[in-house]
């Protein structure tokens, strides 16, 4: 019997020794950061904004590896609904990719504040990054923390033949919310679903916040103040838009499955001619153009709903950006690869593959020849642009912005309840992440 | 075992008193618990676990009926049993993904219902906040049913045939035989399985919820495991730990309760 | 009883009908997965319920050759084999010592196992994660192997002790009276007898580990270490508009389990209920 117990103990000891040994053997030896000799892992996301992005990156990686035989880049495509949480969890392990993608401003700055990333301006000369557009979205303490790849606007789109069918002028989009509702009424009467979007995963509602909700604000600073409690989110200028969303649904102007189809599936509706109006990124527009034909669709600014100064602002943003992680052993190699993605060849290939404008001043706008693309470019160059969702702390975005919108479109909560949700999530964020809160507060006042 | 259980159990209680992430913890005392209890998402999560408890009697009753039918020495019984048990061994993740496609507003189930002129039943199974958790419950029942069937069948097989024979000779009808004679005899097994499934529904349903609804819409179908996961993946380790402690407490209470009930039953 | 014959025919028919309906409900999702995986995305979007009239292997091929699925399957396989092997081996020894040994506190040991069986793994998640990060084991397969083994052991011990208790004491006594030491008894008598029960235990544990999601999601985030189930959820988010592709992945994840099940059915059912029925 003692022999059995002894062997039991031996198994335990042996097992733990084995594991310890294998764990120990994985301790890495420090290697020099040679930009031309490295294995890089790149967590990438862009396909949802710009269909064709994944294929483009694959080609660029192949080109880069050819000219840099000792460098290998492994691309891991991220999905939209776990983009932020996957990185947050990885950051806790202090290991993971060398280059990661996050959405601009808060989702990029939050890990920066937490010490998980390094400023890209430390590895890329100013002579290079001063050509990148929209870098102001990711500045902190005088340094640039991430690289933009593209710029997207969010235009309003409509299906011209369907407009005609409902007795509406196919060349006149609704410019105000009242006109929008009137058009929707006529479309519905003609048996056409007026507006299409998917909100099972919450992004449809979040876009509503960014496109319509901001329109009663005079500047984005008001929103920033609301995040840290300097202003009250319950003030209708922040949250009044939920009622507009509720109205849309009640009147039946949204597709019936808005609450059970995902954001990506929602985009398909317009391309499949199942709805008459929608909104999407410049990249979505490029794809819709190939599905509907340029003559059969139009692009315009978002209908005017609010009365603040931001009501006429157009939503243009780099949307997502690339940054180098703090634990990466090859930051110089990573930076060199990222700079490669802004070479003229790469930018041209990007535009060809996705129809989305590269975030680089050196990209010649003469390359934009498609008529609809020209309109998009004009819209994108609007004087005032902001993407409000970028200023919401990721945890609050997930638990209040996304969750709240889902509750609205599924008819399970009133706007008042959703406002309460926002406020409780804001205070939870403050108490769970006091360090993040303080960094945000500092950033609001000093930048 | 001490390593796998003892150390983490102590640690999780300790963690529940801190905020910030684990590399820079900040002592906050009971604030995590207070914050969690006032969070509507958390209250909804507990509520949903409770709602899922309703799935247990349905699953057990259905499983019992199937087992009783199989017990009649029906031809091909073994084959029926293997088919009914198959769902139980399938990966919940893969099955959940399939169901998430089937249950969409314009997915297979609703389309078939509409084709069969039962359109009134074609609800938004995943998008309606009241139905989302019901859909999860349906998935749980679908998968756990086979387990109940197998257990009950074995229990029925182990019964001495004399009692059933005697009842039949006495002129008992089929239903009477089942309900008055057989079922009472396997009561201890039924109780055991109830306890097992209650535990399952409280703390082993993450797969189903994550894949089917991700807790949505909003958090209407969230469960405690999902809440812990959500807190953890937004870096709120202290919150996750406090909910874990509460979950553990709940599970222990339920176990204790069931053991006490069993003791009472044995005593009578 | 009057008209027994007619009654019993009606009863028989309704019983069969009932069972067939149940079986159809049980099998339909599986059929849906298999048939959709074999259709093209275009065909599916047009008619989700249709029969695969033009079956194509494109989705399956994409899954196997253009996605990391094989790597993930391999990871799941390694993790399953390791943790189940260690846990079973450990449980055999521990149960043997507990049932036939005479060391103090062996019943306490067994009841602790039973108690630990009901601890939800999710409650141990955060501290274990922190531990794995601090020892550098996170994102390596060892982390989940260690954690799974720890979680499997209580049930394995419970199961094995239940089985060992059915071995007649006389056999053991006869052997030891002939001078055989406890180890020899274990090897020559107990081990061969526990073939079926061990097999059952192995299959049950293997299915549990193969299907596990939450722990794998948390501990293994590297592409190279990811397990199959975690990878599937990634597909679900990424290819939300390409159902055949996602379900092709689902199908491939189910196949090994189905094969295992079909081959070991009898033992499985018998063993599972032997452990329960006490």
Q: Would you mind describing this structure in some detail?
A:
Chain A is an alpha+beta fold and 447 residues long. Chain A has 19 helices and 15 strands. In chain A, strands 1, 2, 3, 4, 7 and 14 form a six-stranded mixed beta sheet that branches. In chain A, strands 10-11-9-12 form a four-stranded mixed beta sheet. In chain A, helix 2 packs antiparallel against helix 15 (344-354). Mean pLDDT of chain A is 89; it is low at 17-29. By secondary structure, chain B is mainly α. Chain B has one domain (35-267): MetI-like fold. Chain B is built from 14 helices and two strands. Chain B has helices spanning 2-15, 31-37, 40-53, 55-71, 77-89, 92-102, 108-115, 132-157, 161-169, 174-185, 187-203, 206-212, 224-233, 237-267, and strands at 18-19, 26-27. Chain B has a two-stranded antiparallel ribbon with strand order 1-2. In chain B, helix 1 packs across helix 14 (237-267), helix 5 (77-89) crosses helix 8 (132-157) and helix 13 packs antiparallel against helix 14. Chain C is mainly α. The chains are: A alpha+beta (447), B mainly alpha (268), C mainly alpha (278). At the B-C interface, helix 1, helix 4, helix 5, helix 6 and helix 7 of B face helix 1, helix 5, helix 6, helix 7 and helix 10 of C.
Question: Overall pLDDT of chain C, averaged?
Answer: 81
User: What kind of oligomer do you see?
Assistant: heterotrimer
Count up the helices of chain B: 14
Order of helical and strand elements of chain C: HHHHHHHHHHHHH
CATH superfamily name of the largest domain in chain C? MetI-like
CATH class of chain B: Mainly Alpha
| Order of strands, widest sheet of chain B | 1-2
Please describe the biggest sheet of chain B, giving its number of strands, its sense, and whether it closes into a barrel. Answer: 2 strands, antiparallel
Label the overall shape of chain B: globular
Give the CATH topology of chain B: MetI-like fold
User: Which radius of gyration of chain C do the C-alpha atoms yield?
Assistant: 24 Å
Order of helices and strands of chain B: HEEHHHHHHHHHHHHH
Query: What is the CATH class designation of the largest domain in chain C?
Result: Mainly Alpha
Report the helical percentage of chain C.
Answer: over 70%
Q: What's the shape of chain C?
A: globular
Task: Kindly state the number of beta strands of chain B.
Answer: 2
